[in-house]
Every structure is written in structure tokens, then in C-alpha cells.
């Protein structure tokens, strides 16, 4: 391996000194993603990258990939860092490739209804761009403000618009990827509008940056709807709200989006923003179509909500909820850290799923909230989160929640989302005997495990020595299970938010 | 079906760089039409050979056992055949010889044409008798064994309160498995068939049951989405035995609106406009006069017909109809009573499918909606020039693309298929934004990124199927 100083000089020669960082503070910023990690994690992983590189062009990304052949440093691509399972965090240091400087619109084709953007552009910026052009995105990931186009594709995200607009995978026309050998690959044919002619795009959807570095994406766009309307209801319980979402699917109503958040979520919001809606279990539904259709859909939704004793919220409150729809985790500011668990569960079992999430939270004596939204006619996303103070020794035990939630999702015929560094133990649970087929993909594209190695399929440690170089994935599962047990043994319940409940008591 | 095998065969045949550009297209033609003036007789005899043994599958356990025999893990004795069958099986397969033999899934209905390189010595699996469908209680999901017909799924689903969102653009009597081992063109207005596949139950090349995806939910965020990357070629990677499909709830009310157009340009403008609205019909099916005559012989039709099926609440249907009427401006007549090709009794559907199947199909052309009239006109002219009366079936996508299937009333011999395919390719190349995506088009394509993607798929196949059992690749 070349010395780090030599590698630094080569990086600076490639990108310029202003786009290569090696100070401890800068490296620290990149040592975690959205999930806070306990300090003990540094014992097994070198979470701090050796360098942070900020390329601005595809050619620079290709040069970085080729450079890693010389330096033998691992490459870890990173978008907005809004992931939650360590997919964009180094495990052996190396070069962290922050894609956020690649944030331009490359091409806009209103006739072909596509837009080509660089991978580091955030979804919110892209949404604003296409909106200004009279179009809309068929689907916008939930963390649209921070998450980048490349990051969401690598996570296999879902989000706003999925029930109507379909999977994000289907909204991708072509990806441009720098492969581990430094060459470029277009994952589908540009001329082909339907994904035939050997379409490899799905392999990169959810690949967590382990097959190559996505530098550009051509995405489908749709005409703006004639009318769209958001409607919100407060329900007497979270399960009632979940039954309401299920009913929508059962009457063949296809909303643009339908989401549910538990009362606790709004308690956290109220603690931070006094003008936020009154805490309740609230469902937010958006419908689209012609004016008459929207009116008809609203009547249908009203009827379904009233069956579950849902009270319609005032238009001003609904507008506020819709405006703030991308701000899902401001509660993080209450506790310094926040742990989210992303899972997909069958729509038919959503009422059971939300109650299970609340039970697990309570059993582990955590403060947290449950969010869920419809993905398609069979699938709902269940995204509970819990608050965590990672400055306290007991903080890290909150990570046990993710393990327990994932297990519950599997029991309900669903699955947890994301593998990254921390959840690799779920791979075999997900794919069973097909795990070897999945692993074959990495073998074909990156046999030397150069890009984001030691993740998704296996868990590398920072130690290169035989016997210590990797953790058996079940070992990680045991670790998180121990965290959950310790959490449960903790005598008191976390109480990050007191003001709202005290105020009510008075 | 057989795409990787055919592509690999061609690639191996043209490995000599100096010759590749010169001979590639000529070689494809010679192989496709079995041209004995170009190819040695032995080779043609090899290409014309059909798999000697056909196994009618009744249970996936049989497939597992068979795969284990083919990959050498078990002896042929374990098949439990009678002495006579045992001898026949071993002789026909050439067990004990050095040559590889594999298993290939036979489609129930093939829209276009057979593969260039057939299975040389292997076993053909006929899943016609493996045709059960299981619907979930309380959820809109079905698990269909690959031999189940689309029509069976469609009708049974409706009886149980589900809507099957995808329909075959060319209404033939396809099995669900034909989308994975054949070329069944299932799609809806909002998505391709693959969008509705939650999971595949397969038998791996090592004889294990392996499930790709999740039967009850989407597979987002579970590492590489091998499922959706391989659905159209699934039978080249593993042996699919059942597919978990995402259905929808049956709407309270449903209506098929039939619009007649006297001019292709007007139809094209209407389709383009419809795809630019926020309407989400279940499907939009398009026929020009020749296709319409085959599908609805008793009904006089205009030059073009577009059928739009919408579903929703009884009260909301009127609003949808109004919006679609506005988008489809330019039609000469509208009929809300005319049956569509799919909601007919099973016998009627099969009869109509038989009539449709008499035509010669060359594959799919994806054409921008606004150019569809131009495309249909060019296909008709081409048909007239080649004395093969031509027509087109099509279906509109929300992306503004029409998936069009040109057909010809011509004898289905391989040289005719090849020449007509070339003609359609030439037409597609003259219309901006249009792509011919047939299997022959894949073999003709030489764009660098495409070649690389195919090479990756081949490597992936070889890595997954190290036992060389599932349609093993062969070289000339």
C-alpha cells in the first residue's frame, strides 16, 4: 500500500487541494450517517475515512477509482448521508467520495419526459427544477431535503407518490455508473423507453454503492396533475389510522400518497415548534386528478376515515402538514441522536405492524414515534424511530430497537430495509437459499471488493488479519440483541419530552 | 427465452475481430434461417435438433430431482423410471457422454419465434399441468404456478375481488410463465409486467428451492434487485416454478370506452394527450383496422380503435370518462358498450386467441405515442410492398410510449420472419425515439454499452449456474 502522504498528493493532483480533506474534524463529520453510533464501534471499524474527496465530474470519479488501484485505499461513495445502517460510512478508512458537488441538471427532455441529473443533486432541488418546468417527479423519497438522487437509488428507497407513481426503480430510465475498473457503464439503453435491451438498472437499485459509483441518473418525469389536494384526519388510535390506510387499498383508491404518524411524533414536533398541529394519530392523504375526480376521491376518503372515527383536520393544519412533509426527524434535536428502523410490511397487516412497533418501543423503554406510508397495493413502509442520547453510556443500546423491529417485520412476512454495515445479518433471512445468487452480483461486478467493500454481503472490521478481518453476520445480530436486552433491563424510561405532557396535566 | 444462449453463440462465432463486422449480420441470418448454403450440414442438423426428452411437470419436487440428475448430483436411477423409460431417457440424453445437457422450460404460447440454438441434448420442461393459483386472504396478491394461464388468473382473480392489473397487448392464450421463459407481452397503463412481480419461486441450478424477492411485499432495500433485472430472462438463470404477483382491489365500477379514429395522426395526438393527463386508466389497448377485424370480426371498425378501461367508484367514473373524452379529442365515434378483448368468457377468449395467433409476429416496437400513426402507416405500406398484409396491436403506457406489435398475414417460415423483422427494424430506425426490442434486434445490436451489459449478464448466468444446467450456454 502506498503511504497516506503519497495518496494525499495524488488525490490533490487529481481534484485540487480544496476538494480533498484530511483534517480530523472533516473526517469526523463523515464517520457516521443519520444513525448515531456509540464510541465502542470504533473498536471494530475505522469509521473515520483517511481522506474525503469531493469530485465534480464523472471523469474525476473515474480517476479516483483508478487511483485506488495505486493507493489500495477503499472507496466509500456517499450522498446526503441520510442512510441509517452504515452503508455510506467507511469500515476501513480509505477515501470517502462525497458526491454532493455533482449536483447539476445535465439534460432536460420535455418530449421524452426525462431529466438527467448528477447523482449528488438532492431530491428537493430536483423536484423544484421539474416543477418550474411544468412537470413532476413520479416519486420523491421521504428525506427529499437531504437525500441525493444517487443515495436514494443505492438505498432502494420509496417515498411520496409511490402508490400512484410506482417504484423508484421503474422511474429510472438509465444510470451512468463508474465501475470498479474505472470504466463507465450505462445501465440501460438510452433509446429504449421500456427497459428492455439488457437493463441492468435494477441491480444498482439498493446496491448500497457496492457495485460502482453512480454519477448520473436519467429519471422519468410526469406531467403536473391538473389538481391535487392534501387531506388529513386525526384518529382515536394508531391502529385505526392503519386500518384506514388498508381500507383505501381495499376499495381500489390510488392516492398520490398516504402516510400515518403517531401522536408521539407530533408531541416531539410540539416540543420544538409550538405552532405544530395538536398531537394525535394523524393520517395525511394526497389525491390527484381532474377537479371532479379529486372531489370524488375526497368524498371516498372522508367516508373511509369516518368509518374509523377519523376527524378531518382544518385545511390550514393540513396545508402545514403537507408543507412540512419532508421534515420527518426534527425530533433528533431533542435528544442529539435518533435511530430509525425502515421496514416493509404487507398492507393487510399494517394495523398489527404499527401496534407491534409501539409495543417494542415501550418494552425497550424508549421514546419514539411510528410512521407508516403506503408503497403499493401489497406493501406499506413502517418507519418507527426512537430517540437516543449517544453521549450517555446507555445511548447505544437504543440500536437494539432496530434489530427487534426487523425481526418483527420478518415475522409479519415483510422485511427490514437496508443492510449496509450494521444489518448484514438480515441478508440470509431476506433471501434464504437465493443469497448465493445475490452474492454472485458482487462477484461479477467487483471481484476485488474495491468499492464499498465489506458491506451488504459481509461485515469487514478494520483489522486486515485473518480471523479478525470480518465479523460473522450473526455476531452482529447477537450484539444488537444484547443491546436490546440491556435496554430492557434499564430501570427507567427515557423522557426526552416533558413539557407537552406536563402542560396537559396542569 | 434463449436470449443469452443465442447471443453467446453468435459472440463466440464472430470472435475473430477482423471478421466480426463483416459477418455478424450475415451469420445471424444464416443461423436463424438455417441456411445450408452458408453453414455446414452438421451444424444445421444440430440447430434443428429439438430436446429429445419432454417432462410434463406436475410437482416442483420432480424438477428438483431432475436438476440434480442433470448436474450429476444424483443418478438417473433416482428418477424411478420404468426400465424402458430409463433406457430411453439415458440414451436420448446421452448420459455418460462428455457433452453437457441441461433443462429448458417450454413456453405455452410463443408470440414470435423459437430460439436460434435449441437445447442440444437436454430435457424440455412442460409446465402445462403445473397451473395452480393461490390468492391471499385479505391481501391483493396471487401466487401463480408458471403453467397457469393469464386468463385463468384474470377470471379467478375477479371472482375473488381482485383486479389483475396487467393484460397481454397481443391477446393470446399465454401462461403466466411465458413472461419469463417466452415473450408474453403483459403490461398495464402504469407499468410493465415486472412491476407487478413481487417474487419468483425457483429451482436453483443445484436443485434447491430458492425464492427471489418477497411474496407479500416489494423487495426494496434488500441489496441487488436480481429479481427485476432477470424477470424477462429468468428461465436462463434458474427454473421459475411460480410467481408471486401484486394485484389490485377490484374497483366498485369499471367501464371500457371504445374510441374510433379515422386517421392515425389524430389517434397519435389523442394518445399523447391522454398520457400527459393525470388519468390512470387500467389499460389502453390500440388496434388498427386489420387487428380490429381479427379481434372483433362481427363489428365494423374504423381505421384505428383505442379501448380505454377505467375503474373507480360509481360516482367517480363519470368524472374520469369526461376527462378521458376530452383527452381523446378527434375521435369519430365512441362506444361504451363494446366488449374489450379481455373481459370475455374463457372459451371466447381462446377462440379469439387462436385467430390472433395465425398472424406472424416479429416482436415489440416501442414508439412515442405521437409517432404511432406514422409507425402504423409505415408498417401497412411495408406489408403491402412485401405482399404480407400488415397490422398492429398496441398498448399505451403512462410514459407516453406505445408498445406496438406489428404483425403480418404471411407463412411463418424463418426466412420470412427474418426479412420482415429487418423491415420493421428499418421502419423503427426512421422514426425518432423508436426502438425495436425483439430478440433478433438484441442480436443485431452492437452498441458498446449494450454489449457490455450482455457480457455482464452472461457472467452472472455463469456464476449463478456453475453447474451448467439451466439452458447451458453453447458455442459453435
Describe the structure.
- The complex is a heterodimer of chains A (506) and B (476).
- By secondary structure, chain A is α+β, with helices and mostly antiparallel strands.
- Chain A has four domains: 4-100, Uridine Diphospho-n-acetylenolpyruvylglucosamine Reductase, domain 2 (2-Layer Sandwich); 103-223, Uridine Diphospho-n-acetylenolpyruvylglucosamine Reductase, domain 3 (2-Layer Sandwich), CATH 3.30.465.10; 227-415, Vanillyl-alcohol Oxidase, Chain A, domain 3; 417-484, no CATH class.
- Helices cover 36% and strands 20% of the residues of chain A.
- Chain A has 19 helices and 26 strands.
- Chain A is globular, with a radius of gyration of 23 Å.
- With 476 residues, chain B is of the alpha+beta class.
- Chain B folds into three domains: 23-125 and 446-464, no CATH class; 133-249, Uridine Diphospho-n-acetylenolpyruvylglucosamine Reductase, domain 3; 253-440, Vanillyl-alcohol Oxidase, Chain A, domain 3 (3-Layer(aba) Sandwich), CATH 3.40.462.
- Chain B has 16 helices and 21 strands.
- In chain B, the strands form five sheets. In chain B, strands 13, 14, 15, 16, 17, 18, 19, 20 and 21 form a nine-stranded antiparallel β-sheet that branches. Chain B has a five-stranded antiparallel β-sheet with strand order 4-5-11-9-10.
- In chain B, helix 9 runs antiparallel to helix 13 and helix 13 packs antiparallel against helix 14 (414-430).
- The longest helix of chain B is centred in the first third of the chain and has 17 residues, at 17-33.
- Chain B is globular.
- The mean pLDDT of chain B is 91.
- Classes of the chains: A alpha+beta (506), B alpha+beta (476).
